[in-house]
Design a protein that fits this description.
This protein is of the alpha+beta class and 203 residues long. The protein has two domains: 4-106 and 183-197, Glycoprotein, Type 4 Pilin (2-Layer Sandwich); 109-181, Hypothetical protein ph0010, domain 2 (Dna Ligase, domain 1). It is 28% helix and 26% strand. Strands 1, 2, 3, 4, 5, 6, 7 and 8 form an eight-stranded antiparallel beta sheet that branches. Strand 1 and strand 2 (56-62) form a beta hairpin. The longest helix has 21 residues, at 4-24. It is globular and about 50 Å long. The two termini are 23 Å apart.
Length: 203
């Protein structure tokens, strides 16, 4: 799907986009030397974590392939830093103690089931992320979240419903649509340090 070299390019691009925005309040242009693969449209999320505690500091992205990956990475990175409503904007000095993580996503796929119990057979912890949708309510959790939190499949479904502002058992309601997607995650080992692919353990 994407090589470690591609991932390192995206993570460094995300950090650079945040640095330049905090300095000049402008979005950088997509780099002309970006590999052709990274110019194709793809969904992407940028996650910021404190270092070394690894507390969430911001996470925003595009679940669907609506723009070229390099452009989406730039926009998601800046939004994660200054527009996540759960946190105050990141300050320039904070970046020295912040880890940047980029998740490149496959397009979401609607999970068709006859009974809600079938969801438990059709999702895989460590491989799938989920999007829950009912009416105007929508919530998404990335593939690494249930792994990091050590959730069961039922908990993963329930927490994604809560992320959508629905009751935890809304995944059992036939009016609720559930989509799954996969992703490959690249992150810094330490701020401005080596970039690695984050291996997601399967439960």
């Amino acid at each position: 799907m994407y090589s470690l070299e591609d991932g390192a390019f995206l993570v460094k691009l995300a950090r650079s986009a945040i640095e330049k925005y905090l300095e000049k309040r402008k979005l950088i242009a997509p780099p002309k030397n970006a590999p052709e693969k990274l110019r194709e449209k793809a969904g992407v999320f940028v996650t910021l974590e404190t270092y070394p505690k690894k507390d969430l500091r911001g996470c925003i992205g595009y679940p669907e392939p609506v723009m070229p990956l390099v452009e989406a990475t730039i926009r998601a990175a800046v939004s994660a830093a200054v527009q996540d409503p759960r946190f105050p904007p990141v300050l320039r000095g904070e970046l020295n103690n912040t880890i940047v993580e980029v998740s490149v996503l496959t397009p979401p796929e609607l999970i068709n089931v006859k009974s809600p119990k079938e969801y438990l057979q059709k999702i895989e912890i460590g491989r799938n992320g989920l999007t829950v949708e009912r009416g105007l309510s929508r919530g998404l959790l990335l593939p690494q979240v249930p792994v990091d939190e050590n959730w069961s499949k039922e908990e993963f479904l329930s927490y994604t419903c809560r992320k959508a502002g629905l009751t935890p058992d809304s995944w059992c309601d036939s009016r609720t649509k559930i989509y799954k997607f996969s992703g490959i995650v690249f992150c810094e080992v330490e701020p401005k340090g080596e970039v690695v692919e984050k291996k997601l353990k399967k439960c």
